[in-house]
Amino acid sequence: MKKNTGITLAEYFKTMMVVSLISLFSMGSQAQDTKGQAVMSSETVTATVIKVNQKTREVTVKTDKGEEYSFVAGDHVKNLALVKKGDIITAVYTEAIAYEVKKHGTAGVQTTTAAAAAKPGEKPAGAVAQQTTVTVTITAIDTKAPTVTFMGPRGNKETVKVRDPKNLNGVKVGDMVDITYTEALAIKVDEAPKK
Fold first, then answer.
1. 38, 97 Cβ separation under 8 angstroms
2. Contact of 150 with 139, CB cutoff 8 Å
3. Which helix (H) or strand (E) holds 24?
4. DSSP bridge pairs for 147
5. Is 138 exposed, middle or buried (0-12, 13-18, 19+ CB in 10 A)?
6. Are residues 26 and 20 in contact, defined by beta-carbon separation less than 8 angstroms?
7. E-assigned strand segments in 103-142
């Protein structure tokens, strides 16, 4: 379960974008006409329902580590009436970041969101995913430093250090870089184990 760090999604994405560009040229090079890389991580948390208040929609769970969390299930959580003490909640959080250097394109930002929920009469379950792609333009390459400067779709410029200068081979000013950040959360409730 993620805790709020006090930064906005936009700030987080900008940080992830800069970090990915720092990593961009430190990874192994690929074909001369296109370079790309992706990194993905996933975390699964399992908790047992220890209390459910159907009137207030407050649910209290206990993780395998003994930590207790309480939350209010919003109206978007369907079939809450089917959740009872002892049920097992499994949450899987996945995030990935990928980049691809392209020779042509236009700067921009594109975000896609998708969601799914349990059908009526089924135990609560749902998934939501969001994918954002930012296309930036390389505006300067300093092979002595070595650094790469890029401009985002709103005119903002960033300069990042290149760890392995060999990865600059085949990359030139004017190349476009697509940076795609994806995050997904899937949650399901299973019945309490039979005793």
1. yes
2. yes
3. helix 9-24
4. 142, 161
5. buried
6. no
7. 108-117, 125-142
Provide the whole-model pTM: 0.64
Whether the Cβ atoms of residue 179 and residue 133 lie closer than 8 Å to each other? yes
Residues 113-125: tens digit of each pLDDT: 888 888 888 998 8
User: Which amino acid, 1?
Assistant: M
Beta bridge partners of 50: none
Place of tokens 């019945």: 191
pLDDT digits (tens, 9 = 90+) for 81-125: 999 999 999 989 888 888 777 777 777 888 888 888 888 889 988
Say if residue 57 is exposed, middle or buried (CB neighbours under 10 Å; 0-12, 13-18, 19+).
Answer: middle
Amino acid making up residue 33: D
Closest CA to 20 of 6, 3, 33, 35: 35
* 3: phi then psi, degrees, rounded to nearest 5: -100, 150
